[in-house]
Specification:
Layout: H1 2-29, E1 45-51, H2 58-66, E2 75-81, H3 88-94, E3 101-105, H4 115-125, E4 131-134, E5 140-141, H5 145-149, E6 157-161, E7 164-166, H6 172-193, E8 205-208, H7 209-214, H8 230-239, E9 243-246, E10 254-256, H9 262-273, H10 282-307, H11 311-338, H12 347-367, E11 370-372, E12 375-377
Helix pairs in contact: 1-6, 1-10, 1-11, 6-11, 6-12, 9-12, 10-11, 10-12
């Protein structure tokens, strides 16, 4: 009996921590209003697109960036080839494109990690822009994307995180991924809204090159294969007086592709999870570890209800109801903002899948070995 009480107390503390975390996100989301898209920064802009083996996407990316409804004399685009082994480089080299779009290749490097950071850094080193925008070669940008993304970039702004969504696909796995990814994007937005920047996505963000240089870029991250987006955002928030913002503007949404299969999905999530323990904010690390233990406790409670006592199934159901209710509120606040089609009917399937993948990718990401873009990485 005493063991059961102690276990329930532990589970209750984990649940309370998670509920508080979700409540923070909801509080942050309630603070957003649409930016004024008529404001264009005075500074010159450089858009950097690192790419590796993007033959299927590179020309679509080029077309969407070449057709931006933004003053042509005020921005440039730099594509940085990261040792592609397909014809991505040749396709963009031979394509008809404006003079403002440049193509470079990252010099051969001997390290076994941080390839994307190296590619982005190389692009920044050769950029003219005072404001750096990064995206990915598998993304599609609407004509007003750049205008909308930068609409809130005032003199006090050091970093803007932009919204990312998935292209519509008919298969069930893509729809589940879309909901799960929407949860990540909205969580990042909510945390930025309350002044606790934690999550963002390198497929759609902007920052001042001056701040990048003052903080020595990604120099202290080169031992990690991921994190050039989140870790740098957190560094700006904690080490400078500049503000970090989220662009709550439907016109700034960047579209990318969901993973083709579960293998690619888990490799991606392992890569993302591998950086979590390297956040500078130790309190944040503790909080995220407790959140992971909450997810792990769901599995443990199922086992305990089978082998120890049925009381655990009652507590489990209470916890899941609270979790589902708050996460439904978060997703419903931003689903129309991120998507043009109805996804909420897949919410319950997405929730169950989330428990499964978080439990697995959280622990596997700790070991830091994964494969991405036909490369094997260490954390």
């Amino acid at each position: 009996m005493m063991i059961e009480i102690l276990l329930i107390l532990v589970f209750a503390l984990l649940l309370l921590n998670y509920i508080y975390f979700l409540a923070d996100i909801i509080r942050g989301l309630n603070k957003f209003s649409k930016n004024d898209p008529t404001i264009i920064p005075d500074e010159f802009i450089t858009i950097i697109i690192p790419f590796r083996n993007e033959s299927d996407n590179i020309l679509l990316s080029l077309s969407s960036l070449a057709s931006q409804n933004y003053p042509q004399e005020k921005f440039e685009v730099i594509y940085v080839n990261d040792s592609s082994t397909d014809d991505s480089y040749e396709k963009i080299l031979n394509a008809v494109k404006p003079k403002s779009i440049k193509l470079m290749s990252l010099p051969c490097i001997s390290i076994d990690r941080a390839f994307k950071k190296k590619a982005v850094s190389y692009g920044i080193d050769h950029s003219q822009g005072e404001i750096i925008v990064t995206s990915d070669a598998d993304c599609i940008h609407n004509r007003d994307w750049l205008t909308n993304l930068l609409s809130g970039f005032d003199k006090q702004t050091g970093f803007i995180s932009g919204p990312v969504s998935f292209n519509e696909k008919r298969d069930l796995f893509s729809k589940i991924q879309s909901l799960e990814f929407a949860g990540l994007v909205l969580s990042g937005a909510g945390l930025i809204g309350i002044g606790k920047p934690t999550i963002c996505n390198g497929a759609n963000l902007a920052f001042r090159k001056k701040v990048y240089n003052e903080l020595h870029g990604y120099r202290d991250q080169m031992h990690l294969s991921s994190g050039e987006d989140e870790l740098f955002m957190q560094k700006i928030a904690t080490e400078t007086d500049y503000t970090v913002k989220f662009c709550w503007n439907k016109g700034a949404v960047v579209l990318t592709q969901p993973n083709k299969n579960t293998h690619d999905f888990f490799q991606q999530r392992k890569r993302w999870a591998s950086k979590g323990l390297f956040y500078k904010d130790k309190f944040l690390i503790v909080r995220l570890v407790l959140i992971y233990f909450f997810y792990l406790s769901i599995v443990v409670q199922i086992l305990l209800s089978i082998f120890l006592s049925k009381v655990f199934i009652i507590y489990l159901m209470v916890g899941l109801i609270l979790k589902f209710f708050l996460e439904y509120k978060i997703i419903s606040k931003g689903i129309d903002f991120l998507f043009k089609y109805d996804l909420m009917k897949y919410f319950w399937m997405s929730e169950l899948f989330q428990i499964f993948y978080v439990t697995i990718s959280g622990i596997s990401g700790l070991f830091g070995n994964f494969k991405w873009k036909e490369r094997k990485f260490r954390r």
